[in-house]
Fold each of these.
Amino acid sequence: MSMNEEQVRNEVREWLKENWSPNLDLVEWRLKLADSGWGMANWPAEWYGRDLPVSLVPAIEEEFNKIGALTIPKSGIRMLAAATILNHGSDMHKEKFLKRIITGEDVWCQLFSEPGSGSDLAGATTKAVMVGNKWVVNGQKVWTTSAHKAHWGLLLARTDMDDTKHRGLSYFIIDMNQPGVETQPLMQMNGHASFNQVFLTDAEVLPDFQVGELGDGWQVATTTLMHERRAADSLRSWGQASKGDGPIYDQERVETETTMQPYKWYPQRAGRVDLIMDRAKETGAIKDPAIRQEIAKLMTLHKSAEWTARRARAAQEQGKPQGPEGSLGKLAASNVARAAAKVHTLISGADAMLTGEDSPMDGTIAEILVSFPASSIAGGTDEIQKNIISERVLNMPKETRFDADKPFKDIPRNTVS
Amino acid sequence: MKFSFSEEQEEFRSFLRRFLEEKSPTTEVRRLMATDAGWEKEQWRKVNTELGLTAIAIPEEYGGQGFGLSEQCIVLEEMGRSLLCAPYFSSAVLTANAILYGASEEYKKKYLPEIASGDLTASLAFTEETGAWDISSMSMCAKKTENTYRLTGVKSFVLDGHMSDLIIVLAKVNDNSGSQRLALFSVDSTATGLTKNLLNSTDQTRKLAKLMFTDVEATCISSEDDVTEAMQTTFLKSCIGLSNEMVGGAERLREDTLEYVKMRMQFGRSIASFQVTKHKATDMLADVELAKSAAYYAAAAFDDGESDIAATASIAKASASEAYMQTAINAVQMHGGIGFTWDNDTHLWFKRAKSSEVFLGTADFHRELMMQSWDQ
C-alpha cells in the first residue's frame, strides 16, 4: 500500500479531531494510540502500527504537535526493547510486551555490559544454564540505566562456554522483580548515580523468554545496539516535555522528568561551551592574554566541529554517500569537552578547586570539571572510535584478533576481575 | 550552501584536480621552485587561458566571470593540493581584492580586466619589515607633490613582488588637518627609485620580495579618503582564500602519508596495522576535516554576507594553520627517514605548511582577532 503525505496528514487530522482530548488519562490516551496505530505508525499493522514508511513519521508528529496532542516518547530503553522484539521476538513476546511499551507502563533496562567486558561487549561471562525447565542465570551486569525501576531486562548471557565467543551468547528477556536480581546504584566520580550494577544470583528465565535462537544472542544484541545509537542521537530532543495545561500534560511531565533524571549532568559532560564567554567576562579572565588564546582555541575547535557535523547532515539529507566527515562527530565532541573543561578551569582559577554551593554557578562549573571524562568513554571510547574510523573510513588493516576461532573458555580473561 | 557543494562545483573541482595533476606534477613544481621567478610566463598562460582561473571571482563588469569566493576557494584548494607554481594568490586574490574594494572606478576599469585575463600580474605591498599583518601598523607615508605622490620606505614579505608588472602599495597620507589616513597607490614595477630584492624563503614555492622605495613616483588609486575598511575586507577575504588553499595541501599530505604507511612493511607487517599508526592517521583525518569545514564555511559565509565574518575568517585561518602544520609534522614522522630527505616530496608541502602558517598571520594572531571581535 502506498499513501502520500497529504492523505496521511488528512487521515491523522481526522482521527485526532475525533479522539484527542487533554482530559484523558495518559495511559488511556496511549491505549488509543496503540489500538489505532497512530502512535507508532511505522510499525506493522498487526502490531499497533499502520505499516507506513518511517519517512512519513515526521509529518504525523507535526500534526500531533499542531494541536498539542501527545505522542509516544520514542526513546529510552523500552523503545530499544520494542525494536528488538519486533525484529527477533516471537508472537508471544509481541503480544505480551509491545502494548505496555507504548503506554509507558513497563520500564525496561539493558543488561549487556559487564565489569569484565566494556568495549568488548561480546566477551560477556554472565552464564545462563538450563536447570530442569528453566534458565538459571548467574553473573554481574553494569552501566544499567533504570535497573532499579525496571520491570523487564534485555539480557545478553553465555549459554555455551565451548563454542566461539560470539556464537556462545543468547538473548533473553528477564523479569527484574525476582529474588535472584539485586540492583545497586553505581556512583560515578561526579557524585551522580545514573546507572546501576545488577547482580544475578540463580535468577530465573522461562524458556519462551529467549529471543531468537540459541546462540544467536550477538546478532539480536546488534539490533538493540543499532537502535541505541539512533536513540542517543535523538536524546536531546526528547528531553523536552510538551507544554500544555491539563492533567495529561502533568502526567507526561512527571514521566519525562523521571526518565531524564539520570541524564541531568549530560550537558556538563559535553563541557558547556555556551557558558565560556559569559564566565570569562564576569570573572575578568577575558583580559588575560593567555586565557584569551585558550578560549579562542576552544571556540575554533567547537565551531569547526559543529560545521563538520552540519556537512555530514547536509550530505545525508541530499542522499550523498557518507564522507569521512560523518564519522568524526563523537571524537570531536570528546576533544571539545576536554578543551572546555580546561578553559573553565583557567577562567575559574582557585574557585576551580571548589564544589557545590561554594563553587561558581552553584556547582555547575565543578560538575563540568568532573564529568567531561565520560565523553571520551561512554558509547565507545575514543580509542575504539579510532580503530573503527581507521578500519572503515581509511581502510587500514583490522586489529589482529586472538579470540575469533577458539572456544570461549580458552580465551584469556582478566586475571583479577 | 555552507555545508555542501553543488554538482556543478563538484564537477569543476574534479576537472580542475585532473588538470592540475597533469600540469603540475612535483617534477614541475621542483623545476619551477628552483628558479628565481618561481613561475613561467608561458606555462602559466597556458594553464590560465584554458580555465580562466584569474577571472573567476572578478565581477563581469570588470572582465571577470563574476563567481563568488566559494568558487575561487575551490581553485585555491586545488592549487594548494598540487602546489601549482603561479602568481595567482598575489594577483587574483590579494591585489584583485584590494583594487576591487579600495580603488576608484577608473582604476578598477583599468586594472581588473587585465588581471582577469592574466595579462597583468600584480602584487600587493602592505607588510613592512616588522612583519606585522595588522594594516593599522603600517608606517610608510606618501608625500604629496603637485600632481602625484612620492613613496619612500620599505615593504617586505611582498608575495611575488620581485616579478609582478604592477605593485599596489598601501601607505599613509597626511591630511591637511594633520590626521593620517590609509590610501592605495599604484607603482610601475620598473619605476625609478624602486629596488626589488628576492628574499630567501624556506618555502621555495612561495616567493617573497623586499621592495625598497626611494622617492618613487606613485599614483593614488583609492576610491575613498580612507581605505581601512576596504583593506580589512581584502585581508579577511584573503585569509579565507589562503585557508582553503591550505586545507587542499593538508589533505594531499594526509592522503599521501596514508598510502605510504599502507605500502610500508616492517617487522613482517604493514606499518598501517600498528594501532599507533591507525590512531595517528585518524587524528590527521579529524584535523584536516575540521579545518576543511571551517574553510568552506567561511567562504560561503562571506558570499552570504554574514555579520560575524571577521571572526569566522580568523577561525578558518587559525584552524588551517594548526591543521596543516600538524599534518605536515605527522607526515614526515610517519614516513620516517625517507620523509626527511630532499628527494621525497613530503618536504615540499611541509614547507608550504610553514609559510602558510605564518603568512597573513599565525594562529595566535588570529585567535586574538577573534577575541577582539567577540569581546567589544
Amino acid sequence: MLSRVADSLYWMGRYLERAENITRLLLVTEDFSSETQGLAEDLAQTAWKDMLTIFPSAQLSREVTPFAPLSMPYLHAFFIDQGNPYSIHLSLRKARENARSVREALTLEVFLALNEAFRALEAYGRKGMPDPPAYRDALVATHKGIFTVVGAIEHTSTRDEGWRFLKLGESLERSYRSALVLRAKLPALLAAEARGDAPLYYTQWRSLLRGLSSLENYRRVYGARLEPNLVIGFLLFDPDSPRSLRYGASIVRDYLAAISGPAALTTPARIVGKLHADLRYDDEALMRRGDFAELLDRVVGELAKAHDAIATQYFVT
Amino acid sequence: MKWVPEARAFDEAFDKTGTPRPHYRPLVSILESFTQDEIERRERLQKLSLIDQGITFTIYGEKEGTERIFPFDFVPRVIPAREWERLQAGLVQRVTALNLFILDVYQGQKCLKDRVIPPELLLSRKEYKRELLNVIPPRQIFTHVVGTDVIRNDKGEYLVLEDNCRCPSGVSYVLENRNTLNRVFPEFFKYYGVRPIKDYPNLLLDTLLRSAPRASEKPVVVILTPGMANSAYFEHSFLAREMGVTLVEGRDLIVEDNYVFMRTTSGKQKVDVIYRRIDDDFLDPLTFRRDSMLGVPGLVNVYREGNVALANAPGAGVADDKSVYAFMPALIRYYLGEDALLPQVSTYLGLRPQDFAYIRDHAHELVIKTAGDSGGYGMLMGPFASKREIAVYVGQMKKNPGNYIAQPLIELSAHPTYTDGKFEPRRVDLRPFILYGESVRVLPGGLTRVALRPGSYVVNSSQGGGSKDTWVLASKGAA
C-alpha cells in the first residue's frame, strides 16, 4: 500500500489510542484527587502533576486559583485546550485529519463514528465547562465515543495491510504510554511505602491499576488484595492483560511480523522482539533486582527507537 | 403546504395556469399529504446525515480549509423518459464531436486549414498545449469523462451552456443525493420508476481500464488528487472508495525509466492509468508550471511515450474554452455531417472587433465571461451590476478583448425548492455526466444545481448554490 496512507493510518491508530488514554487518566485522576484532596493535598497535586510527566511537553494554560478545585486547570488543558499538544481535543482532531486524508482506506462506519465523536467533543468545547462534574460528564461521553470508533474498526475493517498499520500505531502508543505512566508513578509509590497510612496507600495502588484499566483484570487473577509486588508483576509481566508491558510488546511484535511476513526480520522487528524476549524470559530476575526505574527507562527508549525504525522502514520510500 | 409559482421563467413543475405538469403530479400530492412539522423533521434528519457523513466541500478564500456541506434540497427534479432521450442523443453527438475536434487540434489541424475556426483564436487559447502536438492517447480518446452544463430557456428548451472536458466534478453528489433522498423520503419512490445511477463507479472504472496504454494483464488504476485542501477532495476520495482504487497525491508518484510508480510500503509499484483530478498546468512541473507542488516531475514524458494513460488526456481543456464553444455547432457539422441536436446560447466574441463594440455598448444587458475560467469566477452579470461595476469590468476587458465572451441573459428555468415552510421557485441548471469508454454513455440523471438565493441566477456551489436529486423516469408511458 501507499507509504503515505500507511503513515496516516499508523498515526490515526496512535492518536485514537492516545485520546482514549488521556480520557481514562483524567477520569481516574479526577476520582483520586477529589477523594484525597482533603486528606493529603500533596498526593492529589502530585497525581495531577504526573500528567505532565506522562505527556511530556504538555502545558497548562490556566492558573491554579485558590478556591477552584485544583483539577480545573488540568481538566481544561487535557480535555479541550487546543494549544496543548496532548489534549483529547487535539488528539481526536489529528486522528480525524489522518482519517480524512485516507478516507478511502477506511470503512464508512469508522469514519462516521470518528466524525461524530469529534463533533460531540467540539460541542462540549463551545458549551463551556463550569466545574469538574461537567468535565466528568463530557469525559464519560467522549470515552464512549472513542470506544464506538474502536468498535467500528474492530467490526467492519478488512484485516489488510492498512488495518495492520492502524493496529501497529495503536499498540505501540499503548505500550509506550503505559510504560510512561508506570515510570511516573511506580518509583515514587515504592519510595512512599514507609508512610504508613494504609488506606491512602492502597488508594494509590488502586488508582494506578485503574489508570491502566487493569483493576478488574488484576482482581480476576489475584482477588481484591492489593499486594505491591503482585501489582507490579501484573502490570509488567502478565501474559494476557492488554496493558501489561509484556503483552503489549508481544502485540507490537505480532503486527510487525504480520506486516513484513514472518520470514523477514526488519529493524523494528529486531528491536521489539528483543524487548519482548527480555520481558518474557527475564521477568523473575527483573523482579528480584527491583530497579524498575531503569527497566522502564529502557522500555520507553526501545519503543521510541522502534517508532523511528518503523518510519524509516515503511514511510520513507 | 404553500406552492409559489414562477412568474417569469419556465417552471419545471407547473404550467402557466399553476397546474402541476403530469410528471410532477404524484410528487406534489405526496408532499401535500405531509404536515409542515413532518417535513421539517425529515429535513433535519437529512442535514444531520450529511454532516455526519462528512459530505463536504472546501470554499477557497474563506478561512483556511473551511469545510461546508453542499446544501441539498429534497424536492427532486423529474425528467420524463422521452425528454431525456432527446437530451441524451444530443449529448452523445456533442461529446463525439468534441473528441474528434480535440484529436484534430493535436494531429493535423484540418479544422484550421478549412477555416472552420480561426487559427489565431484557437492557437492563442490558454488551454491549447503546443507541447502535446502529435501526442495521441490510446484509442484516440481524449475525453473520458465530460460534464456538459445544460440549461432551459423560458420556453423550456434545453440549451448547452458549457462543456467541461477537464476534470468535471459533482458526480459524487449525484450519487449521495439519491442515497439521501431514498432514506429520508422513501415515499417518493413508490410512485415513480426512477432509473438507477448507482453503477456509475463501475462504468467509470470500466472506462478507465479501457484507456490503459497497452494490453497489460491487469492495469493498475489510480486517482490523482491535489490533496485534502482541494474543494472536490470528498469526491476524489469517494470515487477511490467506490471503485476500489488507490487515491494518490503527486508526492506518492515517482517517474523512473519513463514509467510511473507509486511509493508503497513494499517498494515501488507501476501505475498504468491515472484518473487525474488536477489541471494540466499543475500536472508536471517539468512540462507546464514549474512552481507546481501538486504534480509529478516527468509525468508528461511518460504519457508521451505511451507508458501511462491520463484521463482526461492533457490538452483536452482546449474544448472548454468559452470562445471555442461559439464554434461548436459548426464543428459538429464539420466532423459529423449533422446539425447539432442540442441548441446552445448565442455568443459574442471579444476577439471580433464588431462583437467587442457590441459587448462594450450593451454590457448592461449581457452576461460577460472570461473565456478560460469556470466555476462562476471572473463573470459579470450585466443586468444586475451597478454602472460603476460595469465601467470597471469594461476597463479590464479593453486590456485583453480576446479573453472575453458575452451572452444574452437566459431566463434559467425554475424549480420548486423548499424554503422556510414554502415551496418557492429557484433557478436550476443540469450537469449530466458522459463517459467515453467502449462507446459514449450518459449517466441517466446528473447534478441539478439550484441557486438558493431568491432571484439569483448563480448556481455554483462556491457562490451559494445547492443541489437536488435528478430523476430520469424509466417508463415511456408517463408524460
